[in-house]
Input
Amino acid sequence: MSYKILVVEDDEYNMKILKKILKDENYKVYTQSDGKDAVEKAKWARVDAVLLDIMMPEIDGFSVCQLLKEDPETRDIPIIMVTAITEGETLKRAFELGAFDYIKKPIDRIEVLARLSAALEYSEQQKKLQDMAMRDGLTGLYTHTLLLELLEKECSKARRYKTSLAFLMIDIDHFKKVNDTYGHRAGDMILSLVADTLEINSRRSDVVGRYGGEEFGIVLQDISYDNAWIVCERIRSSVENFEYRIGDKTVKITISIGMAYKESEAEADFEKMITTADKALYQAKKNGRNRTESIVLSRLT
Output
C-alpha cells in the first residue's frame, strides 16, 4: 500500500528535502506551500498523514491543525508538526490541538521516517478498532448508525464538489416466511449470506451497511445513473441466482431494491436520499418484488 502524505511547508528548501525523503520510500506526496488551503487539499487527496510546518504566513500550523481536527472528514488524520521551536510550551500547544508528534528542524531523514511510520501504524490500529466497533455483529456490515453517518458525509461531499450520488435500500423479499418456515437461526444465516453477496457485488469504494432487520443500505459515490443501475441489477440477480442451502434444502431468495439517484447539480441531504430510496423500494415491492425501482433527484426536483 502506498500511503498518501500531505506536506504543508512554506520554505522551498525544506519542502524539497521532505519530498525527496518521502518519495524515496515510495510515499505518494502532496504539497501545499501555505496553510490557507491545507484542509481542502487533505480532503481532496484523502491523505493518510500530514506533515505540518508551525511557522507559516497568513495561517500558522497551530490554526491549520485545529481546523483539521474540527472537520469530520480530516479529524482522524495523524498530524506531525515540523518545527525548529522545541520549547515545552510550543509542543504542549501542538499536542493540545491534536498533533500526533513532531519533527525537529533541521530535517533528519531517519527521524522523519521513524515518526511517520509510528503515526501511520497507530492510525491503522485505531481504524481497525473503530471498524470492529462499527460493524454489525451478525453480518459484518456497517451498523445502521454508521451507515447513516457515512451517507450524510457523502451527501456533504457531493454537494461541495457537485458530484452524483446514489443510495440503495434493499429488502429481502418475504423474509418472515423464511423465519417462520426454517427458524430464526436459518434466517440469520440467510441474512449473513445475503450481506456477503452485497459486498462481493459492490465496488470497493461503496459503503455497504445493515439498515435494520432484513433491510440493507448501499452508498454509491460519484457514479453515473447507468452504472448505478448496473450495480443494482448485478446485486439483485446475484442474490436470485445464488443457492441458499438450509440443511438438505435449497431456498430461493430474492431482493427488492429502491434507488435514490442524485444528479451532480441536485441539492439533496441524507434525509431526502433516505426517504426517496424508501419510496422507490415501496414501488419495487408494489410492482411484484425481485426488481429495482429508481427515483432521480435532479436540479429541478
User: Anything to note?
Assistant: The longest strand covers residues 165-172. Residues 75 and 297 are 31 Å apart (CA to CA). The chain has two domains: 4-133, 144-297.
